[in-house]
Input
Amino acid sequence: MGRDASRRQMLKAGAAMAATLAAPVPVRGPMAGEVSASPLSVGAPAATSPRQVLSLDRGWRFFEGDIPFPEILGQDESYDNAKAGKAWGAAAPGFDDSDWMDVSLPHDFVSFQPIEADANRAQGYRRRGIAWYRTALRFDPADRDRHIELQIDGIATHATIWFNGTVVDRNWSGYNGITIDLTPSATFGDDLNTLAIRVDAHAMEGWWYEGGGLYRPVRIVKRDPVHIITDGVYAHPVPQGDGWVLPVEVTAYNSGQAAAAMMVAVTLEDAEGRVVAGGQAPMSVPALGPAVARLDLAVASPTLWSVETPTLYRVQTRLMAGDRCVDAVTTTCGFRTTRFDKDKGFFLNGWPLKIKGVCVHQDHAGVGTAIPDALWDYRIRRLKELGCNAIRCTHNAPSAVVLDLCDRHGLLVMDENRQFNPSPDTLAQLQWMVRRDRNHPSVILWSVFNEEPMQGSAAGYEMVRRMAHAVKALDTTRPVTAAMNGGLFTPINVSQAVDVVGFNYQQDKYDAFHATHPDVPLISSEDTSAFSARGAYVTDKDSRTIAGYDDPVKGWNTHRAAWKAIATRDFIAGGFVWTGFDYHGEPSPWGWPSNSSFYGIMDLCGFAKAAFHIHQAQWVADRPVLALVPHWNWAGREGQPVKVMACANTEEVELFLNGHSQGRQTVDPYEMNHWMVPYAPGRLEAVGYAGGKVAARAQVETTGPAVALRLTPDRDHLRGDGLDATPITVDAVDARGRPVPLAQDLVTFTIEGGDIIGLGNGDPNSAAPEKGNRRALFNGLAQVIVRTRAGDTGPLKLTAKAPGLAAAGIRLAVTPAAAPAVQATAPSDLILDTWYAAPLAATQDVALAYRQADPAAWDDFGTRWAHDPQTADGYTLCSVPFTPHAKVGRHGGRVVFLSLVGICDIYEGGHLLGRKTTPAPGRMEVALTPGAGQRRLDVLFQTPAGAAFGFDRNVVVRQA
Output
């Protein structure tokens, strides 16, 4: 697919190439080869952009469980129920959420649940359920003429979203992003905006742990009415002739009231910020409509992106109204070609490259699916250390940060859709994924499904045909695949509707399918599924333990055999091992008490299993690899044979026990090398040879008992932005400082200058909480994930203690760092929007006497506009019964009249709270004393005949 002519190469659209534009201020940020905990997101605002991207990850209030909506019986309630802005229950703007829990995002509420035997096995025996999130947004009056968009990167699973009491979206997947135009109903200044989200995580899309809640970031984006839409820049280079062209497609939208003539200006910057190409194209954007501009940038000899040197370029796109930049975004791109060949597999930049991939779910020990960006960076770096060059996002679109990191670290990506369904809702999810991800050089395949029962049928073929067509309407530069585990040889099947056929666990059919379909490129989309527990080397069903030697369980596959079947066949492009990491849920081959998978090359924490060393030996070619399995602590088995495995990529390997050779062997690059060694305490050492010389050494030793704890952070410095996080490894060492592989000690942690957000140890059978401050070591290891606090300048101090062991402590430097720009939030207001006006009274005393009457029979009116004037001079009492929010009831608060019209006195409980002495509309506040239960507010207006009185904006009760 790499060098073939494509629709994108033809996107001239009459846009003539213009002279290179003057370089804008370069956007500085992490480029290829740099480690970044918060990589530049595709579609980020450019340095010169007037748009604001504001984090909405703080200021949320959370309620676990459902809040049933009240039954609507009355005529007035039925009338109101049919109106915009009149949501009931917890969706209502004035709902009392003051006693809800304060949470920050990302937030996976399922990760806080206990592990219980009667909960869903596939979901890791954690209960799911329903939850509510609420916040109140304060928009500046200066934002009145701007386009305001809510962006939610992911909600698990089904969600209903209300804004100011009106449903603005319903979402049916936990994996797609959501964008909502808030502009029509936004309020400004003192009028707060209520955002309420009901999440139904009972709904499940997968058979693995999926988490629940607002587990990905949320933000508010403010732009000019004429602006580049979200994911509105498509800039993915393609070769053309002897050079390259960068076709750029820009989609703009106009929420203003008149058509706008615009110019799109694009510059391409290299990794050093130098402008290497530029151009511009005109566009006319109609009111309340989109417009598309296209232009091509010629690039003669760019530096290519590859897995070894992932060089990225920046595309700076500006939307210009004359000399004024009304919007601008920065996207990244990489110059590379990809091609799947029917005989020789995969080619990157014209060179054959075996895909050495892993499948990855989106959860981690301690945090579930609410993974901080920095923890994703740790996971991606662990995969690069493994020798992996590709990931398959299983079985759903990943967080955007994952693709950013793959771009920067050099990992290829099979980007996979969740729902196999070409109906409008689910097809829209697929189209969203392609639009969002098509600029990433890391993405090489679009996968439309995984293991679907209809894959071998005509119906499945027709479904995929439609889904593939939808993909190629958006991107023709990458092939479409599907992960098939059957139906490959039926007369009509899915393999006939894709560009690259994906095999799941079909190793015995590689040759037969290739012989029958010699013109079809093939890849192992999923293989292996080998079971093991980290640090365990004896299989015992009673204790739910599986040895880590990579021996088959129940006749299933092994890491070694699966890779050999791929590596020895040129026509197989490569494969994706199930899985790179263990994950919560799907606890095969056993159930309770196992609650996480055993499949990972690494455990839930990212600690290496024996499979890690096997794949390093198979995949790493640029340095010597040598590792020994197992540990050498086998007290009670003296003289008994212990199986020893060496994982090496050298030519030969020799094993020594206490200096005595156990034999020298030619390295087997597929099966590894094995010895049966009678156990004797001491040192087991392997020596790897290349060209007859020592190239590598590895050893394991019999340790003494554990005497102390040790803490080892992934990074020794953090940013004090409240977002940066790092995993810290906990182990126990003997008197000589050697890690004790059998230690199981319970460790208690204390922290200063930061927070513990999760704990883990990789034990697939542990039901211990992953939140809190205690975690036992499992086979010598545990992990603590810590996060900084916004504004802290450090240091972050973590202490670990266990009975009978010397404590350990570390200090991590925390450097000052600005937190991202945030959207202003506030506690929810109680909105007093239904008032009652008593009959006109001739005197003040008569009007005040109405305070003893029931106002329900009076004329009711709202607060959106002033009350109709009276026909005669007098006094009018206006009253509202209300029950203050819980915190106001306990601590007192304020009644805020955002626009009070007329001369009046304000009473509560017979007490005068305040007096307004001018008739013109004006803002006024009065204090409200503590007090629970229903209360009543009375406002006595002087009402001259014909004069307006009342309220032309909301009346609210706020926390003190």
In short: The two ends are 63 Å apart (CA to CA). Confidence is low (pLDDT under 50) at residues 1-41.
